[in-house]
Amino acid sequence: ALRMLFKMPSSCLKAGDPHPGQPYKGGKFYAFLPDNRDGQKTVMLLKKAFEHGLTFQIKSCNGEERVTWGLIPHKTSWDGGKARNGYPDRQYLGELCQVL
């Protein structure tokens, strides 16, 4: 399995954001892909999406701004099935590539 780690630091919202200067909380985010040809190709697409700022967003949770996953679906567990953002999920790579 391929395991990706995203370390998003805490910071402050910038000019142009809804609440400039307001702090937000970062975090560590893990995502998983199968270690095969399709998984390797998908990693490259996910890397481009990350570089373009499409992977994460900042949302308000319980009165606190924090980094959360964006609209690109990620598998955050290696098991548990689709209901728990895990595998097995036969449609995942196809659906992910359509989004990307």
UniProtKB/TrEMBL annotation:
Its EC number is 2.3.2.27. Its main location: cytoplasm. It catalyses: S-ubiquitinyl-[E2 ubiquitin-conjugating enzyme]-L-cysteine + [acceptor protein]-L-lysine = [E2 ubiquitin-conjugating enzyme]-L-cysteine + N(6)-ubiquitinyl-[acceptor protein]-L-lysine. One of its GO terms (molecular function) is zinc ion binding. GO terms for cellular component: cytoplasm. It holds the Pfam family DTC. One of its GO terms (biological process) is protein ubiquitination. InterPro entries: Deltex_C (IPR039396), Deltex_C_sf (IPR039399), Deltex_fam (IPR039398). The keyword Ligase applies. Residues 4-96 form the Deltex C-terminal domain. It is an enzyme of class 2 (transferase). Keywords: Cytoplasm, Ligase, Metal-binding, Transferase, Zinc, Zinc-finger. It is found in: Cytoplasm. Pathway: Protein modification; protein ubiquitination. Belongs to the Deltex family. This is E3 ubiquitin-protein ligase. It comes from Bucco capensis.
